[in-house]
Design a protein that fits this description.
Strand order of the largest sheet: 6-7-8-3-9-10
Structural class: alpha/beta
CATH class of the domain at 4-86 and 157-235: Alpha Beta
CATH topology of the domain at 4-86 and 157-235: Rossmann fold
Shape: globular
CATH superfamily of the domain at 4-86 and 157-235: P-loop containing nucleotide triphosphate hydrolases
Bound molecules: adenosine-5'-triphosphate, magnesium ion
Number of strands: 10
Length: about 240
């Protein structure tokens, strides 16, 4: 049984078809990279799964329950947590207050303190500064905070929209190290929108390439990232 199943969805913004018949499926513990040029529909795909935009056709299931057309809280309750594009921290709140905001939808309140400890273990920097204001964190630290906040919802599947954007290579390494640790220790399923094929190559897993709202290539992340066909499909060379 797939954890996530996206079946033939299309999403329109007015006249514009941002996604056209996209299907993906993910098993528990799997890593899937979604790559593609600007405007390809990558963020729209995550928003559709999160319930922030409604597909005009097709359906989405999480853990065998249909979530398309359901409100985002319902999707979150079933174990989907999203880190959207940009790093939205609440600057005037403390780091710990930001983390606790992630727990609003949880039914298992008794596990919150344990998860907070785990987040502090994987991101010691957040623990050191837990009572400090989030607004003064650097870009990389904010990225860790928003990932930490998404983890505080206790997800099975976490989707992250461009975790590397604007970060120094060393910080990107740290963010990915953490994600992989969580995948390996807790069986967390990772859906990552990433423009850099280098990351997909280092991390492994599967990869889909979106272009013009469609999946134009899919396969093993390491193989595709190394392959000339990715570059061609990315930029649309060799088509009429
Ligand atoms: N709220 C919106 N209203 C109207 N059009 C939108 C909206 N959001 C996205 N679009 C359009 O839908 C298409 C897909 O956008 P989307 O943000 O999903 O692409 P993306 O692959 O995430 O791009 P990027 O790499 O720039 O983040 C684009 O043409 C975009 O202009
Ligand atoms: Mg985007």
């Amino acid at each position: 049984m797939s954890l996530l199943s996206v079946r033939d969805i299309s999403v329109h913004y007015g006249q514009l078809a941002a996604l056209r018949g996209v299907s993906i499926s993910m098993d528990e513990g799997e890593t899937l990279f979604v790559t593609g040029p600007n405007g390809a529909g990558k963020s729209t795909l995550l928003k559709a799964i999160a319930g922030a935009v409604r597909p005009s056709s097709g359906s989405i299931s999480l853990a065998d329950k249909v979530i398309s057309g359901q409100p985002p809280e319902q999707t979150a309750r079933l174990g989907f947590s999203m880190v959207p594009e940009g790093r939205h921290v609440f600057g005037s709140l403390t780091i710990e207050e930001n983390l606790r905001l992630g727990t609003g939808i949880r039914a298992d309140k008794d596990r919150i303190e344990g998860d907070l400890e785990t987040v502090y273990e994987v991101f010691p920097m957040l623990a050191e500064r837990k009572d400090g204001q989030a607004g003064v964190l650097s870009g990389g630290q904010q990225q860790m905070l928003v990932i930490g906040r998404a983890l505080m919802a206790g997800p099975k599947l976490i989707a992250i929209d461009e975790p590397s954007l604007g970060l120094a290579p060393k910080v990107i390494d740290q963010v990915y190290d953490t994600l992989l640790k969580l995948r390996d220790s807790r069986g967390l399923t990772l859906l990552i929108v990433e423009q850099s094929s280098t990351r997909a190559m280092l991390t492994g897993g599967r990869m889909v390439l979106l272009r013009g709202g469609k999946i134009v290539l899919e396969g093993d992340a390491r193989e595709l990232a190394n392959d000339e066909s990715l570059r061609r499909a990315y930029f649309g060379f060799g088509e009429h």
